[in-house]
Amino acid sequence: MKRLALILCLLAAPGWAVQPDEILDDPELEQRARDISAGLRCLVCRNESIDDSNAELARDLRLLVRERLEAGDTNEEVVDFVVDRYGEYVLLQPRTDGWNLVLWAAGPAMLFLGGGIAAVYLRRRARAQEAGGAQTDHLSAEEQARLREIMNE
Fold this sequence. Notes:
mainly alpha, 2 domains
């Protein structure tokens, strides 16, 4: 029974992150704040959104998002402000433009490059075995005698 209670508490823990004093009076603005903060990474907890984190820095970021929304900023302006201040690492879903496009494309490009190199290597190896394999497979009588001598020692 205690395990069940513990599991339920752990599952409900993210709901405790946003404190009642942080919630905006306007439900529309609050929903926008929740949408924005769900996409921002807590810099303390790493792979957790600021909406789910109980860290002080996450609370400060949630308050910052709400302040910017109350000031009249659009969702994009709020996200751009936070990114300008903390860098793109703060985004849970990185953007796919500019230099990030190089990073997004690097993985598949390396996979194709490695596959191409492996194919060329295997093809050359097969050709080398076809060309020289018949000559190296058979030993002369002298070589066979020497091999028997070595094996018997």
